[in-house]
Amino acid sequence: MTTVDPSQAQDVWKDVGKNVEFVSLALTRADQATAQAAVQEFADRSQAIIRSMRIREPEADLRVAIGFSNSAWDYLFPNAAKPKELETFAGVSGPEYSMPSTPGDLFLHIRANDQAVIYEVVAQYQQFLGKFTTVLDEVKGFRYLEGRAIIGYIDGTEAPQVEDAAPYALVGDEDPEFINGSYLFTQKWIHDMDKWNGLSVEHQDRAVGRQKFSDLELPDEEKAENAHNLASNTGDDNKIIRMNVPFSNPAEKITGTYFMGYARHWETTKEMLQQMVDMSDFLLTFSELKTGTLYFIPSRPLLDEIAGGELN
Questions:
Q1: Angle between helices 32-56 and 300-307 (to 10 degrees)
Q2: Helix (H), strand (E), coil (C) string for 134-203
Q3: Of 59, 76, 94, 109, which has the maximum CB count within 10 A?
Q4: Average pLDDT per run of 10 along the chain, which is 312 residues long?
């Protein structure tokens, strides 16, 4: 029986990082054979670029994950098997709010202590990606004070410890061809910070379900019925690796959260999203969701197979 080996995975379960960049790309679909050859070259060069930057800037702690959507997989690897749960996110709706589905083919999640390293990696990647993709969105995130979410609360308290994370993040022997891969769901949230900051701290605590300054969880009876940590929790056996990354253009009063959810099972994340809209999660009352896309993050050996043209 094949077993999960985190050393074979891309960087999907570790901490958020100090500087972060997200890039979502669309295939131009001008010529399928050309795109297939180009993605093979990129799969090879991307890993060499990572190795080079880790030698050049070892203190930067560079981490990279590269993903493919359902539509990209069908276009680039039409004759290959596909991860069992990879599909096109159709959006979810509840009584008051909905979460949209937005397009995307390739996705880059790049983290480092030094923003210059991220710049260099993305610039080098684009020398290859620019030949067959166009940019849909590019967001630069950052670690907020004390690792807090942009709304002021400590982030990641409910996420599994790093040493316990692999079973929740990585595909196992239920889909052996894609073992050590991961399902990544991405969302871009824009917050009305004036509305949020107009609430008392006590109101905010009830809305999140935790104390803002101490990070202690409130008793359930003190939480709002739609408190975020109630709406987004579907049980201890259904954890995912959450990364909520702040981003902002403060002079323009544009502030948001880039949500990343890595999971062994896409169905786990989808259940969480549905519950959030069903319960009208309080975070939705002052936020606008701009994107929602599902990607599959191949293992590093599978990236090598892509580079070798074995998936076409």
A1: 130
A2: EEEEEEEEECCHHHECCCCCECCCCCCCHHHHHHHHCCCCCCHHHCCCEEEEEEEEEECHHHHHCCCHHH
A3: 109
A4: 86 86 98 97 97 97 97 97 98 97 98 97 98 97 91 73 80 96 98 96 93 89 93 83 94 96 96 96 96 98 96 83
Read off the pTM.
0.95
Q: Which residue has the tokens 């979460």?
A: 99
- Of 11, 105, 137, 155, which is the active-site residue? 155
Q: What element of type H or E holds 35?
A: helix 32-56
By C-alpha distance, which of 132, 233, 194, 135 is closest to 223? 233
The neighbouring-strand residues paired with 24 are: 107, 137
Cross-strand bridge partners of residue 27: 133
- 17-66 pLDDT, tens digit each: 899 999 999 999 999 999 999 999 999 999 999 999 999 999 999 999 99
In 239-278, which ranges are continuous DSSP H helix?
Answer: 266-278
Give the integer Cα–Cα distance in Å for 243 and 17: 10
Residue whose C-alpha is closest to residue 103's, from 16, 3, 28: 28
Q: What is the pLDDT of residue 99?
A: 98
Closest CA to 81 of 177, 200, 199: 177
**217 DSSP assignment:** B
- The whole-angstrom separation of Cα 68 and Cα 61 is 24
d(CA 291, CA 76): 23
C-alpha to C-alpha distances, 77 to 32, 39, 83, 199, 215, nearest whole angstrom? 10, 10, 12, 50, 46
Q: Three-class SS of residue 219?
A: coil
Tallying the residues shown for the chain, one arrives at 312
What number of other Cβ atoms are within 10 A of residue 81's Cβ? 11
281 is catalytic: no
